[in-house]
Amino acid sequence: MGEGDDKAHVRAPINILLVDDSPAKLVAYQAALAELGQNLLTARSVDDALGILVRTNVALIVTDVYMPGGDGFQLAKLVRDHPRFERIPIMFVSAAARPEAEHLRALSGGVIDYVTVPTAELLRAKVKIFLELFAKERELARLKNELEARVERRTKRLAESEERYRSLVDEANDIVATLDLDFRFTSVNPAVERILGYSPREFVGTTLREHVPPDQLTLHDAMLREKLEGKSSTTYEMQIFSKGRQRLTLEVNSKLIRDEDDKPSGIHAIARDVTERKQAEARQTVLIRELQHRTKNLLAVTQSIVTNTLERTPSAARAKEAIVGRLHALSRAQEFVASGASGGVPMRELVDAELSAFATQITVEGIPVVLGGPFAQQFALVLHELATNAAKYGSLSVYNGRLVIKWRIRQSDEPWLEFSWQERDGPRVERPHEQGFGSRLIASALHHEPKVNFDPRGFEFSVAVPMSEVMQTTKPH
Length: 477
Known about the structure:
Elements: H1 3-11, E1 15-19, H2 23-33, E2 39-43, H3 46-55, E3 60-64, E4 66-67, E5 70-71, H4 72-81, E6 90-94, H5 100-108, E7 113-116, H6 120-171, E8 175-179, E9 185-188, H7 191-196, H8 200-203, H9 217-228, E10 234-241, E11 247-258, E12 264-273, H10 275-312, H11 316-339, E13 344-346, H12 347-355, E14 362-366, E15 370-372, H13 373-392, E16 402-410, E17 416-424, H14 437-446, E18 451-455, E19 458-466, H15 467-470
Parallel strand pairs: 1-2, 1-3, 3-6, 6-7, 14-16
Antiparallel strand pairs: 4-5, 8-9, 8-12, 10-11, 11-12, 13-15, 16-17, 17-19, 18-19
Helix pairs in contact: 1-6, 2-6, 10-11, 11-13, 12-13, 13-14
């Protein structure tokens, strides 16, 4: 029943039971109390009164003291002895004055008032005071019930909230812990076992100092000091050892716990494992630095190609052609390097890519060899220069010309890669009067002096490079 219903119920007429063997007196009582606006029920004997009480909820009994077949004292005792009726107020009314002892007997028997020879006004005033007290008592009872209901609902909500919180804490992926001000763990959720390897039972009771590197202690002291000085919470990264002594990184958000007097009594902390993220950030930093280094190297090579080609080429058209070809060769090498699982390029793929236009004129022989990124980049320029010269002046400039490319690993104190290029059946070869940029580019790219033979039958080129240089994955800074 709602609050509005309760108030309506309080204002509704209440039942007052009038008991007297005299019909005239009952009529007089009804006339005196009529203006109070309540339901006036009448009974002419104790038995009639009990019958009404059984059938109806009565708020007040007004009874004559002496009646044939029973008196008010008997009725009062029956009412007080019955658990359903024991709280109903009883007012005695007597047409004649009675001894004081009788009054005392009535009050000790649970009667609330004893009125002798009442006038209509006195009876009405007495009942009206009761009605006011009854209304207040009823309102207090309603407020009490409402308060109890509210407390019950709030207690239930609090219990449900605490249960949800416990469930969230127990199922959380992050470590949720409480510590005292000496950094001793007083509680921790099950996530500690997944992250650090300790069961909650093992962890509770230990101190933070047992789990962190010594150099971290000043950090935790500083964070606690900030909270004690008024900061609502602190967020920071900390290092901690797992049960297997693996060093992990946790991101911690913590705040103070306060007691009933609002004094700091502990720390509530939520810690997230960010070890993988920190490792990824470190790897990313290394990769960015390596990318910057490689980019600088690539730009230096590009600048060298463009500058030297322009300086040593007599016409702009031929310079453009040479620059474009060399940059394309460099670009193809970069594509191989970028697509390789470890930054390496198979020798055969690099050769085939550079000489794919002359596949029917070429014989390629060599064991599988993977070139490191820096060497592949330089060697692509060497192959491009050799192929360009062969296509313009050598065996690849005629239909029936042939080119044989071979490589092998020569074992000695250190393995070496030996590469050879041999042209046949092309135009007659003659030694040039001066060394061009292409020849200088080849020599500088390989860092090892190649052997060049201008045999009349065809141009020959060979070079040997230590495998330690061939397979190097990064260029020295």
